[in-house]
Amino acid sequence: MNETRTLAQWIANLRLRDVPDEVREHARRFILDNFGCQIAGATLPWSQAYYEVVRKTRSGTHSTVAYFGDRLSPDDAAFINSTFNHANETDDTHLKSPTHPGSIAVPAALAMAEYARADGEKLLAAVIAAYEIQIRISWACSPFLIYRGHHPPVGVGPFGAAAAGAILMGFDAERTLNALAIAGSHSAGLIEYTRTGGSVKRIHSAIPAAAGVRAALFAEAGITGPHSILEGDKGFCKVFAGDYDLNRLTEGLGTRYHLLDNALKPYSCCHLIHAAFDALDQLRDREPLTPGQVKSITVYTNSEPILSHIGSIVEPQDILGAQFSLPFSLAMRLHHGGRGVNGGNGYWDYPNVNLKDPRLLETARNVKCVVPDNAEWARVDKGAGIEVETTDDRRLREIVPYSKGLPENPMSAAEVKEKFHSLVDPILPAGRPDEIVAAVDHVETIKSVEKLAQLLVVPATKRYTAVAGGRR
């Protein structure tokens, strides 16, 4: 027992000098990747709808809103930047849990760093802590959170954001414990959107980012919470997951960093679909195919719940539905004909896709997602296989054990920067992307986090009009 207190003590005592170089390097890549998601995500219409609501109804001067440059309270800035960050299914994923730690950790830490006037060293430490806390809690409850219908980021995210705030405001262990305890009362999130869509999923990182920031601010003011919020009989793990492993909360704490298992996303859709893209790419490298030559595609997985997560929607009614539709997304890739990051499932592809395109719909109807009779894959998040039946009666088969971006098949530092440029080059002034890359590469040396935040702002004369399906 006392797992929550143990985590609080670790957070309060965390110093960047004690963190392995490999962990710090991964954290810098995650910061850059999430900055790219924020800047690009701000251009989308659903992002700007949320932005307008907050801008018109809230106030504050502490923290910067990416892209637009408004100054808002830290919780509101974290909410908006996290909305942008998670706007188009491009942010990172910890598939083993599963959760989306970066779109909560990075916006919350940056907003609180500005509020606390912290430097880049503390910002990096806060990001690392936020990742680790979220992942450990989600992993302790995996896979039962998502199987019971909870969306893990909304459940575990408040704890991560609160951890970031605790570091940036210099909390001791007791105040950090209260920040975590308060964060637990903000946990929420349901995944019905995987069945019937809806744009509210776009704020499933924003809700916990703002909640965790508020929890830290409340703890600073002396508010307290239940110190057994994770392990208690009516705590998070038992109430939300039902079945769980408390050992995963603290096992190897300080020596084993689960953020090293985190995955970056080369494609802008549910990560559980990615292995099928890679399998199609590899198959077409060997056997060139046109859409007209494809009679059917069967995609194999070994989990009924995950199959339901990505296989329920065949004819999506909105962009989010397309991003959680394996059949439709695979049809997009087949008809595009490209591969890799530029294979038709990128950031700018989904907002501009014609959901009623008869060619895409016809192909999607011929894509089947099934659970094989034999145990061909040990875990669904470790790969996928496809079998293509052609119009001339050939059967072409390809298996990908690890999709691109997973720790077993990672994106290199150069590939992360390539993705960043693909997100922001169409938006930022010339030279600015390279400034951001250089700043993040040396984030520990930054004295004023506010200057870093200002690099994410686009001049009003350079901003894009947000029209899904229209101008990019």
Describe the overall structure:
The protein has two domains: 3-261, Orthogonal Bundle (2-methylcitrate dehydratase PrpD); 271-400, 60s Ribosomal Protein L30, Chain: A, CATH 3.30.1330.120. A four-stranded mixed beta sheet has the order 4-3-5-6. The longest helix has 21 residues, at 21-41. The model has no long low-confidence stretch (mean pLDDT 93). The protein has helices spanning 3-13, 21-41, 45-57, 74-85, 102-116, 120-140, 144-147, 152-168, 173-184, 193-196, 206-220, 236-241, 247-250, 274-286, 304-311, 319-323, 326-336, 358-365, 413-424, 432-441, 449-454, and strands at 63-64, 71-72, 294-300, 367-370, 384-390, 395-400. 48% of the residues lie in helices and 6% in strands. α2 (21-41) runs parallel beside α19 (413-424). The chain is globular and about 70 Å long. It is mainly α and 472 residues long. The chain is built from 21 helices and six strands.
Radius of gyration computed on alpha carbons? 21 Å
* Helical proportion, percent range: 40-55%
Percentage of residues in strands: 5-15%
H/E order of the elements? HHHEEHHHHHHHHHHHEHHHHEEEHHH
Total number of helical segments? 21
Net shape: globular
Judged by helices, strands and strand pairing, the structural class is: mainly alpha
Number of domains: 2
Strand order of the largest sheet: 4-3-5-6
Name the poorly predicted regions. Answer: none
The H-level CATH homologous superfamily of the largest domain, spelled out, is 2-methylcitrate dehydratase PrpD
Based on the coordinates given, report the CATH architecture of the largest domain.
Orthogonal Bundle
Mean pLDDT: 93
